[in-house]
Write a structure and sequence with these properties.
The chain is an alpha+beta fold. It has helices at 3-10, 12-23, 28-56, 60-67, 70-78, 86-103, 135-151, 172-179, and strands at 106-115, 120-128, 155-161, 180-181, 184-185, 188-191, 203-208, 211-218, 221-226, 240-242, 251-253, 260-262, 268-269, 282-283, 285-288, 291-296. The strands form 5 sheets. A 4-stranded antiparallel beta sheet has the order 7-8-9-14, with helices on one face. The relative contact order is 0.10.
């Protein structure tokens, strides 16, 4: 099944829930009947899946091919029919994202999978280094969490030991604190296919989940930030990339206060005599199901702006 179909069916549950909610407008009886209809259909294909898995149970190669399909695997999990335990599913999910992790110079290992107070608990450890630390570290962690929660929805806790950040850049932990709340990811991935329209070294503004973000493209890499200057706090609308003497990467210049930020290294301000808190707020960006997507959390309050 191609990526466009995967992206469509990944959101099928949300569309079904929207239709159920809409049925409430016709009254409680109509809503109850709609829920019963969905339940009957779900039980019907669940029974069919059960029979299929019984028929192929003796063919381990075929079973692996079936469970390797993300859509089929998700339906098997819904009905408790997946033949592999959580550890196996997590390892398989990480194998699928390892090429992406490797492109950032990193890897991840499963330290343990055990029982937690509210479900399965997983401990992971990152290794290697990220070519664009630490904003890349945030993207990598969310990528791994997304893969694990898709493959093993019973997982309630994911503890990650991230790689040590490079000296001279913002701590990855300080960035992850904007993404995590109560030990869980508070971010939601939002498809932003318009990002693909950016040309190399181009900067553009986009609306994502009701907020304006600034995106920059360098070759095959995209970097996304909230639309707020880390120095003056104003919008970055009209900002452009500039190549500074002695700089390895182009920098983004605020069109208002003219502060300069390293977009590759978490938006750190590269001007002299500035505070380490004067940086842009990066947002993880990832190609999911063939569509560029951005992880967004709720807009931080003024008191929480660095």
């Amino acid at each position: 099944m191609g990526a466009p179909d995967d992206a469509h069916w990944r959101t099928a549950g949300d569309r079904i829930q929207t239709l159920l909610d809409a049925s409430s407008a016709a009254g409680p009886v109509a809503h109850e009947r709609a829920e019963l209809l969905v339940g009957e259909v779900t039980d019907l294909y669940g029974a069919a899946l059960h029979r299929i898995m019984r028929l192929v149970a003796t063919d381990s190669v075929l079973v692996d091919r079936i469970t390797a399909d993300d859509l089929v695997a998700s339906l098997l999990l819904v009905h408790g029919l997946h033949p592999h335990d959580a550890r196996r599913r997590i390892e398989d999910a990480l194998d699928k994202v390892r090429p992406y992790l490797g492109s950032h110079g990193g890897d991840v290992a499963v330290l343990s999978v055990g029982e937690g107070p509210d479900g399965a608990a997983v401990r992971l450890q990152f290794s290697g280094s990220c070519k664009s630390c630490p904003s890349s570290a945030v993207t990598l962690e969310l990528t791994v969490e997304d893969a694990i929660r898709t493959a093993a929805p019973e997982v309630s806790t994911i503890e990650v030991v991230a790689a040590e950040p490079k000296a001279g850049v913002i701590s990855a932990d300080s960035l992850l604190s904007h993404i995590h709340r109560n030990g869980h990811s508070a971010a939601t991935w939002h498809p932003v296919p318009e990002l693909a329209t950016l040309q190399n070294a181009e900067v553009g503004g986009f609306r994502v989940a009701g907020s304006t973000v600034l995106a920059c493209r360098l070759g095959d890499d995209w970097f996304v930030y909230r639309d707020r200057c880390g120095s003056c706090g104003d919008s970055l609308a009209g900002a452009a990339l500039h190549r500074r003497v002695g700089s390895t990467h182009p920098v983004l210049r605020c069109p208002r206060c003219h502060a300069h930020f390293d977009i590759v290294h978490a938006g750190a301000c590269v001007d002299e005599n500035v505070s380490a808190t004067n940086h842009l707020q990066p947002l993880p960006v990832l190609n999911r199901d063939g569509v560029l997507s951005v992880a967004m959390e709720a807009e931080p309050t003024a008191a929480g702006v660095p």
